[in-house]
Write a structure and sequence with these properties.
Blueprint (H helix, E strand, L loop, with lengths): L1 H6 L7 E3 L7 E3 L3 E4 L4 E3 L12 E4 L3 E4 L17 E3 L4 E3 L9 E3 L4 E3 L4 E5 L7 H8 L2 H10 L12 H5 L2 E4 L2 H46 L7 E3 L7 E3 L3 E4 H4 E3 L9 H6 L1 E8 L2 E6 L4 E2 L2 E5 L4 H4 L5 E4 L2 E4 L3 E6 L4 H10 L16 H5 L2 E4 L2 H44 L10
Parallel strand pairs: 17-22
Antiparallel strand pairs: 1-2, 3-12, 4-11, 5-6, 7-10, 8-9, 8-11, 13-14, 15-24, 16-23, 17-18, 19-22, 20-21, 20-23
């Protein structure tokens, strides 16, 4: 989709071969100038550090630090920090190789080690155009090439390196036209992405409802029901049993063995290494060679449920000490994993900073236990109904990635002159 749509867009009539790696061929009427002829370095300092503290990253450009969850590099006093004005280009010289730069639309202060640059002439650059241009992959390759130091955290891109760099760009009027075009297109793409994301949320919610209803209420809509006295389950079929987890499962926690990151580094292999939320590494040995259910023992996921709390592990694998290892005494691994994932463990969880579900408390959780023939019927139903929903989710996810890719390529090609932007009606 991306290549086809971009190729269909018009090109300029005549191009100039600049023979500059990061600029390439540009429209013949565009300019090529060194940054030193376009910018001055600004070294204005804060008297008392009271101005708005700003942050610069490769993801968000220049933004208010108060809006970001940043705890590193905090200071008691920001006196002497560099001042920047709206329209100033700000570079994090330590992370420029990742594209950590942006044009500020905020008056504030940044780290004294950052580079702050201001255009020599008014109306030289549209702020958005300049930021898009300097964040294109080819320009970032240049920052990597000329930066000094060791990769990656010790690389530095200093002001003289920036001033020695050439930029390829059109007139201010054409920059404005390009940004007007991109604003419209990006808005359309973002709207399409939002619609797809909403579709995914609805599909996930539908899947969750179907699975929970089947594992807690069965498949017979006319069956007589009774109260389970378990808040997160509600009513269950009258003929189902209720049982504490410790009587329905065998714990195998005593067999788990944690490995440090260093140990795992020395043991890289083909066998999955499981933690609280799934596979976190692969090692050259295994502890288990049977189908078991793993359920998180600690971590924020116990409350957020951003990933399944319980999942089936099979084949040969290793498990650390952040997941309970349990084996059902009844048939239907899929049933038990889905049931355990949909339960609410809030009242069983201890610890505020680090939520924890101990073995004793997990063992106290009440579970509905259907007859074995119904368990197998529920498993068959889940395995029939869920794959099509997962396929829809996967398709929408791929479409979102394609839209994001298209947006990036379109921005890159528009600000580097690879496509001709037509005046909007």
């Amino acid at each position: 989709m991306t290549d086809t749509m971009i190729k269909q867009m018009p090109k300029y009539e005549c191009y100039l071969a600049t023979e500059i790696d990061w600029i390439g061929d540009i429209p013949a009427h565009w300019s090529v100038k060194k940054a030193k002829f376009l910018f001055n370095e600004v070294n204005e300092r804060s008297i008392d550090g009271s101005e708005e503290l700003l942050s610069v990253s490769h993801l968000t450009g220049v933004s208010r630090r108060s809006e970001k969850n940043v705890t590193m590099f905090q200071a008691e006093d920001y006196t002497g920090s560099k001042l920047c004005q709206p329209g100033d280009l700000v570079m994090n010289i330590m992370w420029a190789w990742m594209g950590a730069l942006g044009v500020s639309d905020i008056e504030g202060i940044v780290s004294p080690s950052y580079g702050v640059f201001r255009t020599k002439r008014a109306n030289e650059f549209n702020s958005k155009f300049l930021e898009y241009l300097l964040k294109t992959p080819k320009y970032i390759e240049y920052y990597n090439k000329v930066s000094t130091g060791l990769h990656s955290s010790r690389l530095r891109f200093y002001a003289d390196m920036f001033f020695g760099m050439k930029l390829g760009f059109p007139s201010f009027k054409e920059q404005n036209l390009i940004i007007e075009f991109l604003d419209k297109k990006i808005s359309q793409i973002d709207e399409a992405i939002a619609i797809k994301q909403k579709q995914i949320e609805l599909l996930k919610e539908r899947k969750k409802i179907i699975v929970k209803k089947s594992v807690t209420q069965g498949l017979n809509p006319d069956v007589a029901m009774k109260d389970s006295d378990v808040g997160s389950i509600g009513q269950i079929p009258k003929h189902w049993k209720l049982m504490s987890l410790r009587y329905a499962f065998e714990f195998k926690n005593n067999m788990r063995v944690p490995l440090s990151a260093i140990d795992r580094g020395d043991m890289q292999g083909k066998y999955p290494y499981y933690g609280a939320s799934g596979i976190i590494d692969y090692v050259d040995d295994y502890i288990f060679d049977e189908e078991l259910i793993l359920i998180a023992e600690d971590g924020a996921n116990l409350l957020s449920k951003s990933t399944p709390l319980a999942f089936v592990a099979s084949g040969k694998y290793w498990v650390n000490n952040h997941a309970h290892i349990i084996k059902p005494k009844f048939v239907g691994f899929k049933y038990w994993a889905e049931l355990l994932s949909c339960l609410d463990y809030t009242i069983f969880i201890s610890g505020a900073a680090q939520p924890k579900l101990t073995r004793d408390r997990l063992g106290s959780v009440k579970l509905p236990v259907p007859p074995e023939d119904e368990i197998l019927e529920i498993v068959d139903f889940i395995e029939l109904i869920i794959p099509p929903i997962d396929s829809e989710i996967e398709l929408s996810t791929r479409q979102i990635e394609k839209l994001k890719e298209y947006k990036v390529v379109m921005i890159n090609d528009a600000v580097t002159g690879k496509i001709k932007v037509m005046e909007l009606a």
